[in-house]
Amino acid sequence: MGGTYVDCEGTITYTYLYTDCAGNSVDWVYTYTIVFNAPENPADSGSTIACADEAVTPTPPTVLDSCGDAITPTGPTMGGTYVDCEGTITYTTYIPTAPVTASTGYILIPSYSTASGKSG
């Protein structure tokens, strides 16, 4: 077995040697070419909540590799623009795949009500 397979891409070759009774030989080679297909980046999603305390870490979507196996994400990283009861809280999950890394986010948008009943 030979080839150039490294980091999810390349070739795998199988070589067979045929030799006749006179000592003449020829090779027959069968080659698999492995092409890395990066997973599709799942669509971001989000919710509107009344209070930042309702923000819980969301469950990330399932992402499959080229072979149909689930990829274990890293994260999440929490961020956003939440200040003084307004803004967004984002959770970004990174999907490690060679040779690229994709990310997906979940955005929570807290809303509030004032004493006058107006909401923002």
Strand order of the largest sheet: 4-7-6-5
Number of helices: 0
Low-pLDDT stretches are: 112-120
Q: What is the radius of gyration? A: 26 Å
Number of domain units: 2
3D structure, described in words:
It is a single chain. With 120 residues, the protein is mostly beta strands. It folds into 2 domains: 33 residues, no CATH class; 66 residues, no CATH class. It contains no helices and 7 strands. The strands form 2 sheets. The protein has a 4-stranded mixed beta sheet, with no helix packed on it. Strand 1 and strand 2 form a beta hairpin. It is rod-shaped. The C terminus is likely disordered.
Topology:
Layout: E1 2-3, E2 10-19, E3 25-34, E4 45-49, E5 74-80, E6 89-97, E7 100-110
Parallel strand pairs: 4-7
Antiparallel strand pairs: 1-2, 2-3, 5-6, 6-7
Short account of what is shown:
This protein has 120 residues and is mostly beta strands.
Q: What attributes does this structure have?
A:
2 domains; 4-stranded mixed sheet; 0% helix
